[in-house]
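Notebook entry, structure prediction.
Reason for the run: the old model in the group folder had no record of what sequence produced it. Starting over properly, with the input documented here first.
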Amino acid sequence: MKKSIYVVAFALLAAAGCGNQDQNLTADVEIPVSVEDIKLKSIEEFINTTGTAYPKGDIELKSKISASYFLEKNPQTGRLWQLGDKIKTGNLIARLEDKEYINTITFETKQLNLELTESELKKTESLYEKGGVTLKELKTAGINYTNAKTAVENAQLQLDKTRILSPIDGVIVDLLYYTQGTQIEAGLTIVKIMDYQNMYMEVQLPEKYIADIKPGQTVNLTNYTLPEDTIVGSITQLSPAINADTRTFKGNISINNPNYLLRPGMFVKADIIINHKDSVIVIPKSIILSRQRGKTVFIVDRGVAAERIIDTGLENLTDIEVTRGLAKNDRVVTGGFETLSNKSKVKIIK
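New structure, fully documented this time:
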């Protein structure tokens, strides 16, 4: 009987010894974590919206007479104008030739008549000062000169209809094809030009932001085809009226697009910056844990995790400002924090 008691007691002591070893092993386990040294950064608080970008300059040129069509060459490339070519104000795009039309204008005759009437007016003015002609004769000479000048200006307007010139700087976005020398009718589209170095977009903004958004605020704009490029714009106009059906108000954004990165008609994401701070502590929002005592993060100090309760300030979709609880150069845990508790031993893997 005593022998059995001794065996059981020994077994219990052995089991207890193993349990203590397991506890010691558990206590010594180092939890792998990733950390980031806190540095002072800037943070922007913004309101996100979307819209379509449109060019500020947009013009369509049509033929004004029936004539033979001839597309001109791009002076920069030496070849005929093509879609996507950049164009300057005054560049000749196409000629419309019709000899009968040109002959009816009689521009040279009208120009010669203008020179004669101008000479006659000067001569009459000189004689009038000397008393050689009457006031009526002077006025008649003036009328003749004015009529001749008007005739030349009208003839020039008629001649201008034979030359398709770009009235703006921009890019050719539509150029209908006609064989050189083809007879075309008046009213046919020749070319469409857009200036999209400067663009705009109209957005509908939620009513709750009417006090936060103001003209002049900076807007960062991106498109999914340009993930690495941010275009800068600004709020130019805001409607004071709320749409009763959508509970939104209208805003206009001006876009500076000097490198033509945005294209007309692109769907654009706009981040309207309503607040900004420099040289503050900023951490990812995703590493914050919500506890009964408040917002919590972990830092690593001498191989041990330390729990910190924090206060926060500005925030956006990914980051948040920490106003209390962290200091510059603290090593905040950014990965593996989900299983941590205060005073846990950790092993830094990144």
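Summary: The radius of gyration is 40 Å.
The old model has been moved to the deprecated folder.
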